[in-house]
Specification:
The chain has three domains: about 90 residues, PAS domain (Beta-Lactamase), CATH 3.30.450.20; about 70 residues, Signal transduction histidine kinase, dimerisation/phosphotransfer (DHp) domain (Helix Hairpins, Orthogonal Bundle), CATH 1.10.287.130; about 150 residues, Histidine kinase-like ATPase, C-terminal domain (Heat Shock Protein 90, 2-Layer Sandwich). A five-stranded antiparallel beta sheet has the order 2-1-5-4-3, sandwiched between helices. The protein is built from eleven helices and twelve strands. By secondary structure, it is an alpha+beta fold.
Amino acid sequence: MLKGFSTELQRILVILVVCSVIGFFSDHYALWMLFGCAIYILWMLWQMRRLNQWLVRQESEHPPEASGIWGQIFDNIYQLQRDQRLEKENLQAVIKRIQEISSALKDGLVILDARGHLDFWNPAAHRMLALSTKDQGQSVINFIRHPKFVTYFEEGNYEEPLELPSSRFASKQLQFQITLFGKNERLIVIRDVTQLHNLEKMRQDFIANVSHELRTPLTVINGYVETLVDNNTTPTWIKPLQQMLQQSKRMSLLINDLLVLSKLETTEAGHNHKPINIEQLLAIVKSEAEVLSKEKEQQLTLICNNTTKPLQLPGNEKELHSAFSNLVINAVKYTPNEGRISLLLWQDQKHFYFSVSDNGPGIEAQHIPRLTERFYRVDASRNSSTGGTGLGLAIVKHVLMRHDAELQITSEPGRGSTFTCIFPLPQK
């Protein structure tokens, strides 16, 4: 570029010298200087015209021949065009490759613009949602009209996927996962989870049916074993019969818990919800747990740090009673004799909290994430000593999920554990 400027300055200097000499000898110095400037301006305008014609026509790949600064301008623009053409070809190749990859996916992909309108979709999404070319630019809500999807889409909380029945195929179940990217654009991944949904439904039905069918024969067995225990005086049979009675009762508890879990999984959240006085409910749970805690000479306390009016939570009273009772009974079971168990209720501006704390043996950190899994035991040997089913915390987790709440667990070996239920405060 500096060489071009140098050439251009030399051209200007030559014009000025020639015009000065002619003007000096002809006694028309100013006129010749003006003439020289006009010639240079005309030359510049001609070069501009050549540049404009070359850019507009694009008839030739090569730029016009020129010297000085204009030669460099033509060459630089030509180089930029070549680079741009190469980048465009590379970008088109990448786009083509992405389209080929998206076309090969079994999952549906839908890209929405910032307004939530359809921008791109792959063949799988076309099959699942029956989209066509004329639908581009329309709102996605026009094609997925399920109220749950509309709420999910508009609330903007996309941490968890949403499962819905297909609007096109009655027998299919679809899972929608939305991800934000760019300037408020959205990517929707649609998966066909029909097989997983059917397997889960089969599992739930199997557990519910088996548990229900086992309940009646177990009741009969319990009755006969209790009769034998009460009427048998033979020393050799007393211990076996008592063990049979203990195990049959434990199996009855297991079946009852499985039925509770099955009901929580199969009934829709919000069933039988009504305002519940949480303090009264916790007082009932505490009185029920005191029957067991007094046998172990434990200290059980309930503190409600609520300075306002009694806390009313819309929910299912039977489900919440089951969840709170499971937490308290677990604390009683695993806290040693003469231990301390504290029940605490408090709230802040957005949530209210219920915690159960004990000074029992505690739980190691690696076990905490799995405590709410069905039948998970920190120590399998504790199962027989406590009489638990391994389903209590799973029930607690499901009940809290159905009330938009969560369970937090903190524990330290040798210093006890704290289980905290966190509920959103009711909207006023």
